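sorry for the late reply, my laptop died twice this morning and i had to redo everyting from scratch. anyway the thing you sent over, i finally got around to it. pasting the sequence first so we're on the same page, its 208 residues, then the predicted structure underneath. double check i copied it right bc i was rushing
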Amino acid sequence: MTSNPNNIYTTFDKIKDRNEKELYLKQHGKVIWFTGLSGSGKTTLASLLEKRLFELNYFCQILDGDNVRSGINKNLNFTDEDRLENIRRVAEVSKLFMNCGIILICAFISPTNEIRDLVRNIVGEDDFLEVFVNTPIEVCEQRDPKGLYKKARKGEIKNFTGVSSPFEMPDNPFIEIENTNPDMDETIRSMLTKILPEIRFDPYKFIK
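ok and here's the structure:
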């Protein structure tokens, strides 16, 4: 049964607004969205970025594909429709966190421009920082930490991105990384040079 929109009464106008919460946290909420093939290094980079931002006194939350699918989205499969719904829910949750001034670090394959544009439209163009982890599929298959490519090649996993389902390259990502550099610290430092100006807090903008 679907809800009747006439019976929904939001309270967004009655709660503290985003500016006040960003002032409290002394940071700007953003959604940093890692996209790329399975095994490209999205979750590893997202975790290292969170650690570094936390050391710099930024308050973050990671949303990762497997973690989300084990909880809020456990009822979804991997059909095109369910993939879209999976990301739609993640985007809506991300927006709620972001409007509290929190920095979201999301790691999802999100293989098509349609799916990523859905997130961009929900979150907002200015708040969506797309990070394309452009690791060659050969490298991803060599890593294959979960053995998924091997199963996909045998036909044991259907609709597997990069094997039996396409991955569309982002048109104009905020950051593009070819994650083959063994010096992960250098990769994170290069990311921070672009991310920090977006989340850095300017207290003077609140002084009237």
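The mean pLDDT is 88.
thats about all i looked at so far, will dig more tmrw
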